[in-house]
Structure formats: C-alpha cells, structure tokens
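Concanavalin A-like lectin/glucanase, pasting as requested.
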Amino acid sequence: MQLFGPIFALTAFATHASAATWYYLDFTTPSGSYVTEFSGTMVAPTLQQAGTYYLWPGLQPSDNAGVLQQVLDGRSGEWWIGSGWCCSDPDLAWGSGFNVADGVSIDFSNTVDSIEDGTWSTSLSSGSDSATGSFALPTHPMDQAIMAIELYGVTWDFGKLTFENVVIVANTTSTSWCTGGGTNYDNAAVISMSTPTATTSGSATTCSIASIVFESPA
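Structure tokens follow.
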C-alpha cells in the first residue's frame, strides 16, 4: 500500500515529547556557523510490526524551531520514507516518498542554496525509486545534524540501524565538532562509529564518517 506521507507532522525534535522514546546522535557546529550539506545512506532495518517507528536523519536550526528530516515511517506495517519539515513556522507541505523493503539502502541528501536564502533541496533514492523536496527555511539556519530513533508505544525491536558514508559540511574552519564524534543523547543507545575525519578547505569543513551503527538500547 502506497502512503503519501505522515498523516500528522512529527513531534518537534526540540520538545523531546514525553510520549516518545528517543535515541539520537547529534553533531552541532560551533556558535555562529551552520551546516550547508548533509548526506549519507540509511539501511532500513527489519520492521517487526506496524507501529509508530520513526527513524531519520535530520537537521535542526539553532533556534530549535523544528527539524528538516527524512523519515522512515513504520506505521503501515511496511516502511515508507519521505522528506519534511516538522512542524510549523513555516508550515510546509511534505515532499514525496516511497515504500522501502527491509534491508534496503536509501541514499539521502540535503543541500542549502545559501545560508542567507535558506532554501533546502532534499533527495532520496533507492534502486529505481526516488523523491525530491524543496523547503524554504530562511529564518532557520541549521547548526545540528542528527541521526535519530523516535518511538511511540513501541520498543526498539528492529535490530541495528546503520548509516553509511555520512558527510556533513559546515561553514567553519573548526574541526572538533566533527572529530569529537557527536553527542549520544543521554547515552541511551549503544553506538559504534568509524573514526570521523575532518577536511578544511577555505572557510568550509567537511566531516566524513564511513559508518554509524545504532546497535541497541544502552
């Protein structure tokens, strides 16, 4: 069954809703600097049942107003993935998406045209399936690149969640935000990670991580 996107906007990440169980890794750029690109591959784990499973990479602005995210959604009993901005200010339509089988790799990409204009182009692809989106967020420059597991009324019963070839580009010459390995929220998840590498060219730093695996709850 083809879904056309989440029935309702996902909970704003900054609120850490008490109804949700959270596991996430957060790479935050230094004050006054922002992410300009975020890409990688997410491998869909095995969905055990229909339930409110939201697995996603995403970007959060410095004002914590919401999240631009590519959400792997398990509510129908089959994974569906699409891009969207949660949740308001501005209220934007979700991008297109497609169904995903267990074990399939999905490439994701987020690129901003300029920090000043703030329009993000998103893309998703897996085999012959693809989807794109455009999100005008001029008042929300992004300073956090996040990989998250967000659960409502279900447990982490799907095994490992793997991200590969993760690349984060930010307009800063600082590298410690990358090489420090990010922040594991509340140390709630067991996460294994390849050593992050940072390369600076001009005024931009590229953070590259070959593999990030959410192994299990801690």
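Note for the archive: The chain has a mean pLDDT of 91.
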